[in-house]
Amino acid sequence: MALVSALVRQSYDIFYATCLAAYIHGAAADIIANNNGQRALLASDLIVPLQQLLNGKMCNPSQ
Question: Which residues, 6+ apart, have CB-to-CB distance to 3 below 8 Å?
Answer without folding.
Answer: 21, 24, 25, 50
